[in-house]
């Protein structure tokens, strides 16, 4: 009759240790995939938000800006950095229908206020876009699309209130190709939101894409490559 040999304590401990290492690697890989997915989602949603903001600015003749806010309370009790578009009211009296003039669009009472702090300043707002902890989207803060034209103005929380009739000022406020970059603390390369200064149309592209890195001049996007080379 054959003797059945079981595992020794040393063999069992070794097997458990190997399984522990494999489980740790699997969890780390899953967390990395989840983090990358969140970064991708936030990047595409910010681009979509910029397109929507431009469309609304043209169709409603109201300025629409994108605001990034830190430490916003979430339904689960946590806090997060979020971004959303805000369609600003025009006129001197926020309780009445819009009174559109160059000097009161947006309303002077709202040029230094976000609509989260002062809800009466907005006709409506977009859904919050959660910015992952591994992502910095501060560059898009206060990107404003001007009423009627949809032209972009960057770093202008006032959306050029009182200056909408000044072509040189509007042109000077437009973002450069490299102005709006999304940066990551993960291994992901930067993304660039390139906004056309005359139309407000935008596109988001990655700095590790073939268009930015290829040495083939026929396939290289010079504007993107130059934007990605900026610090």
Automatic annotation (TrEMBL):
<dbReference type="InterPro" id="IPR012902">
    <property type="entry name" value="N_methyl_site"/>
</dbReference>
<dbReference type="Pfam" id="PF07963">
    <property type="entry name" value="N_methyl"/>
</dbReference>
<dbReference type="InterPro" id="IPR045584">
    <property type="entry name" value="Pilin-like"/>
</dbReference>
<protein>
    <submittedName>
        <fullName>Prepilin-type N-terminal cleavage/methylation domain-containing protein</fullName>
    </submittedName>
</protein>
């Amino acid at each position: 009759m054959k003797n059945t040999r079981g595992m020794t304590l040393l063999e069992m401990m070794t097997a458990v240790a190997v399984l522990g290492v494999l489980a740790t690697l699997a969890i780390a890989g899953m967390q990395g995939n989840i983090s990358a997915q969140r970064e991708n989602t936030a990047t595409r949603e910010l681009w979509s938000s910029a397109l929507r903001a431009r469309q609304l600015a043209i169709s409603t003749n109201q300025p629409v800006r994108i605001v990034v806010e830190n430490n916003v309370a979430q339904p689960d009790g946590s806090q997060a950095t979020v971004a959303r578009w805000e369609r600003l009211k025009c006129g001197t009296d926020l309780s009445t229908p819009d009174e559109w003039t160059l000097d009161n669009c947006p309303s002077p009472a709202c040029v230094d206020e976000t609509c989260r702090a002062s809800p009466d300043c907005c006709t409506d707002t977009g859904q919050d876009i959660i910015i992952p902890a591994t992502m910095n989207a501060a560059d898009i803060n206060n990107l404003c699309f001007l009423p009627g034209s949809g032209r972009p103005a960057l770093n202008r929380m006032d959306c050029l209130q009182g200056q909408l009739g000044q072509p040189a000022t509007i042109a000077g406020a437009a973002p450069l190709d490299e102005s709006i970059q999304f940066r990551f603390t993960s291994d992901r390369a930067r993304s660039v939101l390139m906004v056309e200064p005359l139309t407000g149309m935008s596109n988001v592209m990655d700095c590790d894409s073939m268009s930015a890195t290829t040495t083939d001049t026929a396939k290289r996007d010079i504007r993107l490559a130059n934007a990605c080379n900026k610090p």
